[in-house]
Amino acid sequence: MDPQKKIAVLGSTGSIGVQTLDIIAEYPDRFRATVLVAGRNVELLISQARQHRPNLAVIADESLYPTLRDALAPLGIETAAGADAITDAMERDDVDTVVTATVGYSGLAPTLRAIDAGKQIALANKETMVVAGELVTRRLDNSPSRIIPVDSEHSAIYQCMAGEESSTVKKLLITASGGPFRTRSIDELSSVTVRDALAHPNWSMGAKITIDSATMLNKAFEIIEARWLFGITPDRIEAVVHPQSIVHSMVEFTDGSVKAQLGIPDMHLPIRYALGDASRLATNRPGLRLQDYDRLEFFRPDTEKFPLINMAYYALERGGNTACVINAANEIAVDAFLHERIGYLDIQRTIESTLNDVPFIASPGYDDYVATNTLARRIAEEHTKSRFDKKR
Ligand SMILES: NC(=O)C1=CN([C@@H]2O[C@H](COP(=O)(O)OP(=O)(O)OC[C@H]3O[C@@H](n4cnc5c(N)ncnc54)[C@H](OP(=O)(O)O)[C@@H]3O)[C@@H](O)[C@H]2O)C=CC1
Ligand SMILES: CC(=O)[C@@H](O)[C@H](O)COP(=O)(O)O
Ligand SMILES: [Mn+2]
Known about the structure:
The chain is an alpha/beta fold. It is built from 15 helices and eleven strands.
């Protein structure tokens, strides 16, 4: 048997992707990157391929294919481009584990194909579970695949649950930093800038999730993700604000005990744990020194200031394609905000207006999610344009 686990990194050029390649390089006897996938950053993909020598490198943006092919053909590295090539790569024999580190809805199709092909999944792309958690869970029931979460909170919960009977779990307590606007007043939120919103207090991440942290929709997404990953009903999942991001989440058990997982805010740890199949691989990277922290604080979330947290409960209660609509509208709104076409508070307004306009589907199949995503994006685009026109 090949001693090295063969890994496909979807989104290798992003924040999680780059850290995944760090871990692969840290344990060369255990891991090998056989497939690398990027969106548009062809130069970084080429340099990663030169270093890691995968069998295949894929770029989503087809216009960049000639650049990729010309750079990697002399090295004997196969190349491809486009969304179908990414999804097809999930079935390859030289892939054991797929790290889903692309951002947004684009993670859904390759993750489903990887599950159908029986691959192990290290899941960073939480949007997959937000958009279609029920469908993903059903597909997992008919596959030898297992998902190990990479999202720090879900990795923490997974670690807390190890060795426990699931029937003894009373509550999941998902910690939230509170984001860059935790201490701002509601009135101030109408004038915050993109730069303010990108200044996450603890984590260095891609732009989209950083804005989701600023609106705290990230926490709603994580509640939905937890509901599907752990099979826990929403009334037993709570967000707890913890500004230091040292406790990554907690599980309360029926005997009154609460287990927590702690660490510095560094995604290398959950990525390492997931790649190691939920085992502990020794590292020389810096760890937690609790004596460096004056205090660890915990608060109830302010849902008046951050009403998007409650979108999780609304989406799970209403079910169907609701969370798919929220995700699509949010992707469009966050992009418009990052390009300064709408303001921070318009993100929430865009999601709400889009939810009103997209028809509800109670029991969506895969094609319904695809159609919902397309329609919701178009409608959200119109809402952001009319908000932009008002702003001018
Ligand atoms: N960053 C973090 O610490 C955490 C992230 N996550 C989740 O992990 C996922 C990745 O986040 P993050 O790494 O921050 O994001 P980044 O924006 O840093 O990276 C996104 C990656 O996805 C690629 N990509 C974008 N669109 C496509 C597409 N259509 N097809 C293929 N690849 C695409 C990008 O390629 P390119 O840059 O080449 O265009 C890039 O490699 C998200 O779902 C996020 O919520 C979860 C917990 C923590
Ligand atoms: C690192 C990680 O898992 C992020 O999802 C992080 O949790 C974001 O921070 P917030 O707690 O501010 O949303
Ligand atoms: Mn998280």
